[in-house]
Structures are given as structure tokens and as C-alpha cells.
Amino acid sequence: xxxxxxxxxxxxxxxxxxxxxxxxxxxxxxxxxxxxxxxxxxxxxxxxxxxxxxxxxxxxxxxxxxxxxxxxxxxxxxxxxxxxxxxxxxxxxxxxxxxxxxxxxxxxxxxxxxxxxxxxxxxxxxxxxxxxxxxxxxxxxxxxxxxxxxxxxxxxxxxxxxxxxxxxxxxxxxxxxxxxxxxxxxxxxxxxxxxxxxxxxxxxxxxxxxxxxxxxxxxxxxxxxxxxxxxxxxxxxxxxxxxxx
Length: 245
Ligand code: NDP
Fold this sequence. Notes:
This protein is of the alpha/beta class. It contains seven helices and seven strands, in the order βαβαβαβαβαβααβ. Helix 2 links the parallel strand 2 and strand 3. Helix 1 packs across helix 7 and helix 3 runs parallel beside helix 4. The N and C termini lie far apart (38 Å). The relative contact order is 0.16. The mean pLDDT is 97.
């Protein structure tokens, strides 16, 4: 199946920012969506908006750090739509801080969300894709995996892991599956400056407000990777604001 129309796409972190923009973009092009995040109220707003506009979306409260939650997300796709064509692993947290502040809970959350969360998605979707003999993983990385800047080392390390896991998965996935890494640069979302050290957060928000791209820029990159014909794997897309070094 090529194009976006009719595809069943599950998206983690769909309650705001890039995930919500991707849901809107894909719904407008006829995808059927299963949307996951922890904040039920914000998730429902996205689902309701899509449904009111004639799209097809179901929300599932999901914490990607929990294996069973990801299984529930993929099971919902199978129960509601009979299949799963794409899993977009987008959930993330950018709680950046200098090492000296020892914000170890934030370190743990980034490891759990970006690495364990991604693996939980692979664990839930891979057997489905193998049974169907088709499917696509779209993993959201970051330009932080390409240029490490203080005080982002832990965040950058976890996004480097996303990049490595994506490439390894692609090499093992064989001809039936597609595996895509989409690495955004500065994007205007509420996630920038949320958590981490107050100083680092304030600096990130200032930079975001000066240079960030709209989340629709990433949504359309994800859409591009999904809409290619079955035999075409867009392995990697990096999208930055032109002014980002
Ligand atoms: P947002 O904060 O707007 O979105 C993050 C999403 O992830 C929310 O929907 C949040 O929902 C969800 N989320 C966080 N933790 C979990 C969890 N444990 N389980 C399930 N969902 C979770 O920020 P962005 O849209 O900017 O971030 C989306 C992705 O893009 C992240 O992976 C981020 O690292 C990446 N990125 C963003 C950049 C930027 O400049 N904005 C640049 C590079 C990469 P909820 O709280 O409801 O669970």
C-alpha cells in the first residue's frame, strides 16, 4: 500500500507539538490514527479536533516507558482497524541541564522515554509487521545526535541511541519493512524548556522563540517518508531551521 490514504498509523507523544501536528497532517491525507500519550485531556482534544474535521482517530492513554502500554496501542490499531501500517515513535522529553546539577530523575526519564520507550514500540509493533509482511517504523530523533552542545549531553546521548537503534533495525528488517529516522532541529513546541534546569530551559525558550520552525515542518517530513511506494525506504531525514548552526 503506498501513499497515506487508508494507512493505519499509531503515533506516540500525540498530545502536543510534533506528534499532534503529525496526527493532523496525516488525518488530512486520509490516514486512520491511533494516538498515544499520558495526558488524556490533551490527547482527547487532538482526537476530537481530527474527528470533527471528518478524520478517523482513536486515543489511548500510553506511557511509553511501560511495555504493556505500547502493546495496548498496537492492539487498539488491530482491534479498530484490523492492521497497523506505521508506528511513529515520537514521545520525548527535553529536560536538559548541566551535569553538576545532578538532575538524575531527568536523566532517567530521558533514558526511559527515548530508549526503553522506543524499544517497547519495536517490541509491540515488530511481530505485527512480520505477520503482515509489511510495516514502517518512523522514529523521531534530534539534531542533538549530530552536534552535542552543553548542557544537552544526556538528551543528545539518548537521541544518539535512537539513531543507532533505528539504523540497526533498518539493517535487520529485510525487504518487507521500512525504517525511517526523522531528526528535527529547533521546533516551536511546548516541550522546549519543559523540565530540566530553569536556566537551561529559559535559554532554550529564548532560542526557540528566535529561530524555531513550526511543527508542521516535521509533520510533512514524516508524511513524505510514509507516502513513498512500498519498495522505497526513506532512511533518514534531518530538518533544521536555516539559521540553526
Ligand atoms: P512536546 O512536549 O510538545 O511533545 C512531547 C510528547 O511526548 C507529548 O505528547 C507528551 O505527552 C509525550 N510524552 C512524553 N513522555 C511520554 C511518555 N513517557 N509516554 C508517552 N508520551 C510521552 O515536544 P515536541 O513535540 O517538541 O517533542 C516531540 C519529539 O520531538 C520528542 O521526541 C523530542 O525529543 C523531539 N524533538 C523536538 C525538538 C524541538 O525543538 N521541539 C527538536 C528535536 C527533537 P504527555 O505528556 O501527554 O505524555
